[in-house]
Amino acid sequence: MLSQSQTTQFIKTEPPSMSFFPCAETIQPFQCNKCPNYQTSSSVHHRSHHNEPPHKPILTCRKCDFTTYSKLIFFRHRIRDECVKTTIFQCNRCPYNFPNRTQLNRHTRYIHGIHCEQCDFTTPWKQKLVDHVIIKHLSDDQIQWVHCNYCASKFKLEKYLRKHLKYQHPKPDEITWIPCEKCPLKFKLKMQLKRHMILRHLHDSEIEWFKCELCTARFKYKQCLKEHTIAKHLHESEIQWFECGRCTARFKYRHSLKYHIVAKHSLVSEIQWFQCDKCRAKFKHKQNLKNHFRLKHLAENEIRWFKCDHCTLRFKAKKNLKKHMIGKHLPEDEIRWFKCEECTSKFKFKCALSKHFKRKHMLESEIQWFYCDYCPSKFKFKDDLVRHGKYCRGRRLKKVELSGVGVHIKTEIA
Question: How many other C-beta atoms lie within 10 A of the C-beta of residue 27?
Fold first, then answer.
């Protein structure tokens, strides 16, 4: 139970009347020297401004040296912004000044950012700098990889794994499909729908083109413009190369390095194969499966044909139209020739130069041979192996019909 002294602090007592004081009638009211219309009791003014009661804390302004015991006066000081800015915090990277260190720190973070010690990357966030160093500057053996439990994929950052799980291995009830308003297709991501709209349904006049500042090229996607700038306008010394850790190959783009590792260095058991629903074909890369489906299984009326402006030919793939234009219709002085460094040969296509170099100038010890599974033959090019394999396997298989059912039986042909 509270004592009487403890309960008095909760009891609001009425102040004594002015008649209680003998000198109350002789006290003159206090007149404000700033405004003539404001006046108050001199006792109130004296108590608020000249007494220093020990039980009241001193209120100090953080922006200047102003102090007071009165909350009302302190509040008025803050609202009227009467601070005398005696301390100035100056940025050491630009001429801006700030009244306090908090604003200076905020300015430094968002305007000047945190710099990477190995490149020109800048960010206001420390975690983004850490992620940047892991992605750009650490080698594969220095990275603590995060593995997917459902496939062979691995990632440098956990957020990439979460994104991969969300879009590649979602539960059926977690998928929210986004339908296209102009065709029956639907997509998991808004970004995929946007790309589809630009590629399939928007007219050229409706597209927001990304134009190159160094030439007349323009692109539908910002990433394509970036890749064009790297491929066409940057010097080799300015390019950030992506080097393979297992051979001497290097690439201008990260996705090219990933493609190379899967194609050249991954074991069959490590590859995530993409199986065609219409046939037995399977591919190492999802884009190859899409290309296969478009070229082999789409009906004539479902195909988006690429027509030549100079003749009646049409193509299912844009790259085939481009090859046709270079090979048939482009004048020789407009062709970008690929010249061999070992001889005087020149070619219209880079792949033709690579085949020429491998066929004519590469040592046998440097060649990655393609071996036949059915005979001792070996080939420099995979296309030759595939062509030979169909012939060789056909000779070793004999089709026998049993009870109206076709069965393939391996038989040795002398």
Answer: 13
Residue 8 resides in a domain: no
Query: For residues 193 and 145, what is the distance between their CA atoms, to the nearest angstrom?
Result: 31
Q: Which tokens go with 193?
A: 């729908």
State how far the alpha carbon of 11 is from the alpha carbons of 3, 7, 36, 71, 237, in Å: 13, 7, 37, 22, 82
Show the DSSP H helices in 154-251 as ranges. Answer: 158-168, 190-196, 222-232
pLDDT tens profile 226-281? 888 988 888 888 888 888 888 888 888 888 888 888 888 887 777 778 889 889 88
Please, which residues have CB within 8 angstroms of residue 392's CB and are 6 or more apart in sequence?
Answer: 372, 374, 375, 377
171-229 confidence digits (pLDDT tens): 777 778 889 888 888 888 888 888 888 888 888 888 889 999 988 888 988 888 988 89
The boundaries of the domain holding residue 382 are 372-410
Are residues 406 and 376 located together in one domain of the fold? Answer: yes
**How far apart (Å, rounded) are the C-alpha atoms in residues 84 and 65?**
7
E-assigned strand segments in 92-232? 97-98, 114-115, 122-123, 146-147, 154-155, 178-179, 186-187, 210-211, 218-219
What average pLDDT does range 49-74 have in this prediction? 71
Number of structural domains found in the chain:
2
Domain membership flag for residue 153: no
Backbone dihedral region of 403: left (phi > 0), alpha (psi from -120 to 50 degrees) or beta? left
Task: Answer positive or negative: Cα dihedral of 353, 356, 359, 360.
Answer: negative
Pairing of strands 146-147, 154-155: antiparallel
> In whole angstroms, what is the distance from residue 390 CA to residue 237 CA?
45
* Cα-based angle 320, 324, 330 (whole degrees, multiple of 5): 140
Is residue 406 located within the same domain as residue 381?
yes
CA distance 265 to 408: 33
The 10 Å Cβ neighbour count of residue 340 is 14
Type of residue at 87: T
For the chain, helix (H) and strand (E) counts, in that order, are 13, 26
Q: Is residue 361 part of a domain?
A: yes
**Closest to 89 (Cα-Cα) out of 77, 74, 106, 65:** 106
Give Cα 136 to chain centroid, integer Å.
13
Q: Is residue 289 part of a domain?
A: no
Residue 150's alpha-carbon distances to 87, 189, 257, 290, in angstroms, are 59, 21, 23, 22
CA pair distance 81, 29, nearest whole angstrom? 28
